[in-house]
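Take the subject:
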Amino acid sequence: MSTRKLTQVVNARPSSDGDGVKIRRIAGREAMRIMNPFLLLDEIRSEEGADYVGGFPSHPHRGFETITYMLDGAMRHRDHMGNEGVIASGDVQWMTAGRGVIHSEMPEQEDGLLHGFQLWLNLPAARKMEPAAYQEITREQIPVIELDGGGSLRLIAGEFGGESGPVDSGSTEASYMDVGLQANASVEIPVKSGHNVLVLVFEGATSELKAGQMGVYREGDRIALATLEQGARILVLAGAPIDEPVAHYGPFVMNTSEEIEQAIRDYNEGRLVA
């Protein structure tokens, strides 16, 4: 077995999205190449209602998947398929836009802590025009694995310690883990050779990364995470890269500019979800 090395660090930066929602964009368009098959990762975290109360009103997507993971607070999802539900603390929404979805995500609160992540996961060309789909995973459905080195791991997707996460992403073979490490703790996580691996520290620090930094780990079949005098909360993401061109415009991710133009026309003419 060989341990992967940290090869690149990406720093989160302030941004906004939706109706003026303040976010931290950990990785966006400029980082797509190193994140493949992932496209974007945003964090929302504020106790001030003015930072998030506008939410994310109705908007379209095509060609990829969105994964919303709530840590504190709650968001209400509605979409054109008739799905509606509240994503509360510890819950996950895994939505496949496929050929098209129109949805909204609005906060269920006007003040108090709202904290969560949204991850975009690309789809290969063969799946970009498949029917839209929606999965709502409650916190009770997500395995929690106690770590011998001190801490715990919530397994949203992928495999660890003989357990499997409740979501199977199919061809991208995505793993999504929420790892909490105590001070002076460590864990080794097996990963598949050839998969890209991203590690985001969002609380505390590891021996290599501090809060707000995402590390890219390459070449090996495991990653080793360790803390020093303080603990850490960490997202670990891994997936099989998609060896295809990426064309991205706003809420659409396709393979060519012509497909992007078609998606825009379909949305403007009411045919995106027809």
Notes: The longest strand covers residues 38-46. Residues 21 and 170 are 31 Å apart (CA to CA).
